[in-house]
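ok new one. same drill as before - structure tokens go in, u give me an amino acid for every spot. 265 of them this time. try not to just spam alanines like last time pls lmao
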């Protein structure tokens, strides 16, 4: 039985030393809910232990890569849709989910087959090589549409790719960039027609899967160490007001001071 059989929001296919990891909630435009968050934390460890896999393609099912956090679910539940009922927010979650992706020594190619927004854009950009559909859009709308700090690694990877001032504008304004514009400014590596995205990503993945394995892996990890240092620094300095409290305020719900302090621990 495949080690990936228990995944519900991710679909994993392995062939030719390449694992294709598919964000598989097409009915919700692959929005990232509680379960998908948890699966994205564990998939990188499972892929690391899979000796049949030398490279990974990350993509979305249907017409979207992912529209990011499931805002509808967040607004309907205490703690959003990332916490179980009664569970206290763990401020280390963001660091773990980012670091686990960065620590996978096998190359990850993001096949951005459709819009990639918010946290989904972060996961795509944290990949090692990005292939994007020319008519897809990518951006982080935490600030402009949800009223949240652009966290979860977005404030780390965007400045590294496009520079500090451009990153500040894109993140603060929630700019959605087309594939062609994203390639022009260096945000993504390749842009192709939508119908060719997955094929191009797999072409690169197969090449790397059959290349000099350890040279590829150690080169990747060496460069990712720069990103990890930024991640740890930024998340340690993140504001005390986490998204769970902000959502409760936006919904008009009054939380007690002890509850707020509990969330900040």
């Amino acid at each position: 039985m495949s080690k990936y059989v228990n995944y519900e929001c991710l679909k994993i296919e392995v062939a030719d030393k390449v694992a294709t990891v598919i964000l598989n909630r097409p009915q919700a435009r692959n929005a990232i809910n509680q379960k998908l968050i948890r699966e994205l934390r564990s998939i990188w460890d499972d892929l690391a232990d899979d000796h049949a896999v030398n490279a990974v393609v990350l993509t979305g099912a249907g017409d979207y890569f992912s529209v990011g956090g499931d805002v509808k679910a967040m607004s309907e539940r205490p703690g959003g849709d990332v916490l179980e009922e009664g569970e206290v927010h763990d401020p280390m979650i963001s660091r773990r989910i980012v670091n686990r992706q960065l620590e996978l020594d096998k190359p990850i190619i993001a096949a951005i087959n459709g819009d990639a927004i918010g946290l989904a854009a972060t996961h795509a950009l944290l990949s090692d090589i990005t292939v994007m559909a020319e008519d897809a859009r990518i951006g982080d709308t935490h600030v402009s549409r949800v009223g949240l700090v652009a966290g979860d690694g977005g404030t780390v990877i965007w400045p590294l790719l496009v520079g500090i001032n451009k990153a500040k504008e894109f993140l603060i304004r929630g700019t959605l960039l087309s594939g062609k514009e994203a390639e022009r400014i260096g945000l993504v590596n390749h842009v192709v027609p939508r119908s060719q995205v997955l094929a191009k990503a797999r072409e690169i993945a197969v090449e790397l899967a059959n290349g000099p394995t350890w040279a590829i892996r150690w080169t990747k990890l060496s460069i990712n160490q720069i990103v990890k240092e930024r991640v740890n620094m930024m998340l340690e300095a993140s504001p005390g007001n986490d998204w769970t409290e902000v959502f409760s305020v936006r919904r008009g719900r009054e939380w007690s001071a002890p509850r707020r302090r509990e969330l900040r621990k």
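The beta strands are 10-15, 18-23, 55-60, 108-112, 116-117, 129-133, 137-139, 177-178, 190-192. and btw Residues 213-236 form the longest helix (24 residues).
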